[in-house]
Design brief:
The chain is an alpha/beta fold and 700 residues long. Helix content is 60%, strand content 7%. It has a seven-stranded mixed β-sheet, sandwiched between helices. It has a two-stranded antiparallel sheet with strand order 7-9. A two-stranded antiparallel ribbon has the order 10-11. Helix 18 packs across helix 19 and helix 20 crosses helix 30.
């Protein structure tokens, strides 16, 4: 058979991903399953004179789906027409939780699948206090049991050589309780070619996505007729299997003192302490954010400088004209706007991978779950939310770890409320304009205002989550039930592979959307609807005969922007922004900052004839910018454009508005839906508008 499908099935934290990396030797790719945002990892293995297609299924404790991940597992294993349907299922377990692995193995075999059993992490048998009688275990499972250590590659040769072997005929151990047999007999008539256990699975699930509507309705009628509760059926199977396996494994599996578990318990007394646990966690988060800011800063500056030099070089070697400008200012600048986020993504996912691999991430989820659940979020939401303080892009990507679809969606929808580093240039300038540089109780007023903006982001995220939680209906109940794994040293190959997957996934997937929007913005800013745009140089020279050099170029640039499509859009939306205290020039800033929030500062510099490149950290430039903005008069009101009322209004607008195209691109990619992306954008921007309107109307 050409390219047979080899599926890896197992519980979380059994080293399945390490085994996958070993088998594929990183000859793999990551994508999403069709029609769903669950991550799909697949690769190839060349051995035994053929090429195997290796699929790493999401970790699961049972074949009864309770999450998107588990739905995928069941569909791949049970749907015969699925192109990923396995020719062989490799069930991976680890010594201390081998009983759960055996349950998965039994379920897979009873579905009619050829399967073999692998005990990974075999080097930890002694430290975990486990003794396994492998010959008796093989007789019990009716298959060869392979012993591997995916970290070192031990046992992989024997496993690979067995991929063509045909497992023996398997007779299932699970006996359907008598009270369900009548209903099952009726259901079996609907699926005459299915195994009895697969039909039981169909009957014991509320919905099997790939079954046609008539079969779904017929199954529902049977459940209604016999008053069957699917949750009760699933629980019954779990209890029966667990009790039988515990009895059957007497003498096959023996446990003594677990040294690793004892060490883990001692560490958990500190890390899960009701007070000290939170102190350590938030201290670790502080360290992560410091690293994201400090470590990524030089790299982002280097990327920014490199693309700046590249655009300067291209401007000297390419002929002048719209095509060259499109390539340099649209495409190259757009790519630079994508690549510049990579250092933050790499650093964030490096820490997240280390936390996941070491076993600490499960403790974080446990600590934060009870605090976030009233808002409709999950304990796992804490990582994306806190990461949003650095950048919403990797933060939204981090929400992939949340199993419950509603809680994952809620997390992605509210994470952009968190105050990201891109808002800082705006906050610094606006706060400098409207808040005096005085002290209150020994604290700087401007610093207090900046701190309030961060608190406002947290309040906005949690309040929005609470509202959306009332609106969005959940398709399943959410219970945070999971195993706290033992602590272990990270597998560096897994860590680096995961970081590479996330960074490359962002570049290639979200990057396409970001680049497209960059080009559209370039077109709007570099073309105009009439001769005023194209004759800007002549018009400005006639109106300002005394200007020359850089001043003339700046004035021409400002005039062209005013009469570009982007400028007319700004004047077109002025009736909308006027109630917020803004004029058309500030409207242009709002439109252009759709590309990235911090673009507002540079846009205002262009509009105010100062040139696009303004370093707000440089005192001279900063003083000039603030002075020019302070002196700007709003033609509609006759008052300073940046007074206290309009300044607070602008701060609130940027605190809540969804204006970063990179974040929009990532949300579209992660949700797989333009519907939710547009809802998020409209909800946040609508909230921003209302908050800014109320603030201005009260304060003016």
């Amino acid at each position: 058979m050409e390219n047979p499908n080899i599926v890896l099935l197992g519980n979380p934290n059994v080293g399945k991903t390490s085994l996958f990396n070993r088998l594929t030797k990183l000859n793999q790719k990551v994508g999403n399953y069709p029609g769903i945002t669950v991550e799909k990892r697949e690769g190839s293995l060349k051995a035994n004179n053929k090429t195997y297609h290796i699929i790493d299924l999401p970790g699961t404790y049972t074949l009864f789906p309770n999450s998107l991940d588990e739905e995928i597992v069941f569909k791949v294993l049970s749907e015969k027409e699925n192109k990923l349907a396995p020719n062989l299922t490799v069930v991976v377990a680890e010594p201390s939780t081998i009983k759960r692995g055996i349950i998965l193995y039994q379920q897979a075999r009873e579905l009619g699948l050829p399967a073999i059993f692998v005990v990974n992490m075999i080097d930890e048998v002694d430290s975990k206090g486990v003794h396994i009688d492998f010959p008796r275990l093989e007789a019990y499972l009716k298959t060869k049991v392979y012993q591997t250590n995916a970290r070192t590659g031990k046992g992989l040769d024997k496993l690979i050589s067995s991929l063509d072997e045909k497992p023996s005929i398997y007779i299932g151990n699970f006996q359907i309780p008598e009270k369900y047999t009548a209903a099952l007999d009726e259901a079996k008539k609907l699926f005459p070619l299915a195994t009895e256990y697969l039909t039981w699975q169909y009957l014991a699930q509320e919905n099997v996505s790939y079954l046609p509507a008539d079969k779904q309705n017929a199954l529902k009628a049977i459940r209604d007729k016999y008053q069957l509760d699917t949750h009760e059926m699933q629980k019954t199977e779990s209890l029966i299997r667990h009790d039988k396996i515990s009895a059957d494994l007497q003498g096959i599996l023996n446990k003594s003192e677990n040294k690793t578990l004892d060490t883990t318990s001692k560490i958990d007394k500190i890390l899960l302490h009701p007070v000290l646990g939170y102190v350590i966690f938030f201290g670790l988060l502080f360290l992560i954010f410091q690293a994201i800011f400090s470590w990524s800063g030089p790299l982002m500056d280097w990327i920014d400088g490199t693309f700046g030099q590249l655009t300067e070089y291209l401007a000297t070697v390419l002929p002048e004209g719209p095509l060259s400008s499109l390539f340099i200012d649209g495409i190259v600048a757009g790519i630079g706007g994508i690549v510049i986020f990579v250092p933050q993504i790499v650093i964030l996912f490096l820490f997240l991978s280390l936390m996941e691999e070491s076993g600490y991430m499960s403790r974080v989820v446990f600590l934060m779950d009870r605090w976030l659940r009233p808002f409709g979020l999950n304990g796992k939401s804490v990582i994306p939310l806190m990461s949003g303080a650095a950048c919403a892009i990797p933060a939204v990507m981090a929400a992939r770890n949340i199993e419950n679809p509603k809680e994952r969606l809620l997390t992605m929808l509210v994470t952009p409320f968190m105050t990201c580093s891109a808002r800082l240039p705006i906050y610094i300038v606006i706060i400098g304009l409207i808040i005096p540089n005085d002290t209150f109780l020994g604290f700087n007023l401007q610093g207090i205002t900046l701190f309030i903006m961060y608190i406002l982001g947290i309040v906005g995220a949690l309040a929005s989550a609470w509202i959306l939680n009332k609106v969005i209906k959940s398709i399943r109940s959410s219970f945070l039930i999971f195993e706290l794994p033992t602590y272990k040293m990270p597998d560096w190959k897994n860590v680096l592979t995961n970081v590479w997957d996330k960074a490359s996934g962002f570049l290639w997937e979200a990057g396409k959307i970001i680049l497209m929007i960059s080009i559209v913005l370039w077109v709007f800013g570099n073309f105009g609807p009439n001769r005023k745009f194209y004759d800007a140089e002549e018009i400005v020279q006639q109106a300002n005969p005394n200007l020359s050099g850089d001043e003339l170029e700046m004035e021409i640039g400002s005039y062209k922007l005013e009469h570009s499509f982007l400028g007319y859009i700004g004047m077109g939306i002025e009736p909308l922004v006027r109630p917020l205290g803004y004029d058309w020039k500030m409207g242009i800033g709002l439109i252009s900052s759709f590309a990235a929030r911090e673009v507002f500062v540079g846009t205002m510099a262009v509009v105010y004839s100062m040139g696009p490149d303004v370093d707000i950290e440089d005192e001279g430039q900063k003083s000039s910018l603030l002075t020019r903005m302070r002196s700007e008069i709003n033609a509609n009101t006759g008052k300073p454009a940046y007074n206290f009322a309009s300044g607070i209004s602008l701060l609130l607008f940027y605190a809540f508005a969804m204006q970063c195209m990179a974040t929009i691109g990532v949300v579209r990619k992660e949700t797989g839906s333009w519907k939710w992306t547009l809802i998020q954008t409209l909800f946040m921007t609508g909230l921003a508008y209302v908050a800014a309107l109320i603030a201005y109307q009260i304060l003016k």
